[in-house]
Specification:
alpha+beta, 6-stranded antiparallel sheet
């Protein structure tokens, strides 16, 4: 790809839009959003089903685009939980039930359901007691739904739940209720992306149809139009979500370029599709799926355009080299995002994808052929071949996930490190164009130096997170020198581990308990099973009495009698130990001249600038 592509106004426009949305936009409900009708009374809601329903333990869940509430026009989306009959895509339905605000616990590094829905433009939920079909979808959408359901049903009847789930995931992105152990194996092997209908699937369908039609002698123009039609149908059948629509738009750009013998402009198609998606829904920028899809596609386009195997190499060798380069570029581009979302790195992912990506493409081709033959009642011709491919796919996933180093816990990257990484990666992807890379090197080096100097100068001496899940508070402290201290452990150990990893640390230097409760001990034991934990200080045990100190490099922690807050803003301390088990300790943290005291029970901290209190089901952050 010629370096001049980086001078295109559309690229810079998209960059400024993404930067502006990331910095200044926050998902929020519109004035007429359905969330304004949240009350204690049941409501009657009419809306159009906005996607395929997902079956959960006791309900069919789906997002509904609202048209009216109690006969009053309304906008926005609602997450509906329907007890019995699943709602069908594009149907207009009537729901009766109570609207409520989505349940949300915002703990550092942990999944927050309410935030997840807000990014999708959903600020209300409804548990429907009654469900009525108001108006069925158009014939096209009913046909698409029927085909999708028939494909999944065919897989289910032929291969059983586990292999059918893999087939549905690879072919349509619908994996169903996957066994938790197998799902973890997909994550650890680096193959989880193959269970999601992605842009690669749209490209594969387009190329597959083009290849078949060219083989039977159909002309270029007709075969291209049929391929685009087939890819469009597949996009609808697979759910028509953002990555698929974006990929289809790029396929159209590529095919138009192919027909007029011009550069396909796939990169330009990527930019246009992303700009259109962001213009239509700015909150899409915050979706992990959007970020990963955009970065992976851009990385493959840039890398394969610049790093090409010599034409004199055998075709088979060049094919696997290109698979390797596509896999490597994707893994490298997604490393910061994957790490900051899942807090793990798949070491075997690079090798596993070299085998699993081609095998997944084969499963897609066999899956479509098997379904087509099944419609003619001769599916048995390919049933064993597809079963063998699915079985091999599962065995390879489990094999690559079985290594102890297949997936390692990783701390989240700070913003400056992510920016520095992508600057370096961009240079590597363009390195074969040496004249361009040579010109780029001084600017890249200057930016890297600026980022490094900036984080040294601007990084706070102390970062403090007050975590509170209901009435279980914990305080997490990280110093500029790198020490990580935890005060309290009353929250689930797995959630605490994710919070520590999100803070940028892979270990905890010291844990200070304020009480001797069983809940604190349970959380600590769960945490120790997941992350390395240094010293543990229990109240009124050993040397952990008021006045005792512990040093962690330049950081000193001093135990104190419990510091309590009064309603009038003052404080008072516990004095004396009666052995009732209700006594508590507070701790004073000294670092770089700053002193911070934790309050009794870890509900608050006293900082040089004043008291900072925790909030229920929230994360409160402070920089000192």
């Amino acid at each position: 790809m010629h370096p001049s592509v980086y001078k295109r106004p559309l690229l810079w426009l998209l960059a400024f839009v993404l930067l502006g949305v990331s910095c200044f936009y926050k998902p929020h409900p519109a004035a007429q959003d359905v969330s304004r009708f949240i009350t204690k009374e049941p409501v009657t809601l009419v809306g159009r089903v906005d996607g395929f329903s997902a079956y959960k333990k006791d309900s069919h869940n789906v997002i509904v685009k609202v048209q009216s509430v109690n006969g009053v026009p309304a906008t926005g989306r609602v997450y509906a939980r329907i007890k019995e009959t699943p709602a069908q895509w594009q149907d207009v339905i009537r729901l009766e039930g109570k609207l409520q605000k989505p349940y949300n616990v915002e703990l550092l590094g942990n999944f927050a359901w309410g935030d997840y829905l807000a990014v999708k433009g959903v600020f209300a939920e409804i548990r429907a007691e009654n469900f009525t079909l108001e108006r069925p979808a158009m014939g096209l959408f009913r046909a698409v739904r029927a085909v999708r359901q028939d494909i999944l049903q065919t897989f289910s009847e032929a291969f059983g739940p586990e292999l059918a789930g893999i087939a549905g995931g690879v072919v349509l992105g619908e994996r169903g209720e996957t066994d938790p152990a197998l799902y973890t194996a997909f994550q650890d092997s680096g193959a989880i992306h193959l269970l999601v209908a992605s842009g690669g699937n749209v490209g594969f369908v387009t190329l597959m149809v083009l290849g078949v039609l060219a083989w039977v002698g159909v002309g270029r123009r007709r075969s291209t139009l049929v391929a685009l039609l087939a890819a469009g149908v597949y996009t609808l059948v697979a759910g028509a979500d953002a990555p698929l629509v974006r990929a289809y738009f790029m396929a159209v750009c590529a095919c138009v370029g192919f027909l007029i013998n011009r550069n396909s402009g796939v990169f330009q198609g990527l930019l246009l599709s992303c700009l259109m998606l962001v213009a239509g829904s700015p909150s899409v920028v915050f979706e992990t799926g959007f970020q990963m899809s955009f970065l992976a596609t851009a990385a493959i386009i840039i890398c394969l355009s610049n790093w090409t195997p010599p034409a004199k190499w055998p075709r088979a060798v060049r094919f696997f080299v290109q698979i390797f380069l596509a896999t490597l570029s994707t893994q490298l581009a997604l490393l910061p995002v994957f790490t900051n979302v899942f807090y793990k790195v798949s070491i075997t992912g690079l090798l596993s994808n070299m085998l699993l990506v081609p095998l997944a493409s084969g499963i897609m081709g066999l899956g479509f052929a098997f379904y087509a033959l099944s419609c003619l009642h001769v599916g048995f011709v390919l049933q064993w071949a597809l079963w063998a491919a699915l079985w091999l796919f599962k065995i390879l996933v489990v094999f690559f996930a079985s290594f102890s180093f297949s997936s390692l816990p990783a701390a989240a990257w700070p913003g400056w490190a992510v920016a520095a990484y992508y600057i370096g990666l961009f240079w590597v992807f363009n390195a074969p164009r040496w004249s361009f890379a040579k010109k780029l090197a001084p600017y890249g080096a200057a930016l890297l130096l600026l980022l490094w100097a900036g984080q040294l100068c601007l990084a706070p001496e102390l970062k403090i997170w007050l975590l509170r899940e209901w009435n279980s508070p914990v305080i997490l402290v990280r110093t500029k020198a790198g020490q990580t201290l935890l005060f309290g452990a009353a929250i689930d150990g797995e959630k605490l581990a994710r919070a520590v990893l999100k803070s940028g640390s892979r270990r905890i230097d010291g844990v200070f308990l304020s009480t001797a409760s069983a809940r604190e001990q349970k959380g600590l034991e769960e945490l120790q099973a997941l992350l390395p934990v240094g010293q543990v200080f229990r109240p009124f045990a050993g040397h952990n009495w008021p006045g005792e100190t512990a040093d962690f490099g330049p950081t000193r922690v001093t135990a104190q009698w419990g510091l309590h807050a009064r309603k009038d803003g003052g404080t008072w301390r516990t004095r004396g130990y009666a052995g009732t088990g209700k006594e508590s300790l507070s701790y004073q943290i000294e670092y770089a001249g700053a002193k911070v005291q934790t309050g009794s029970g870890n509900y608050w901290v006293q900082t040089p600038s004043g008291a900072l209190r925790s909030e229920q089901n929230k994360t409160v952050f402070a920089r000192i």
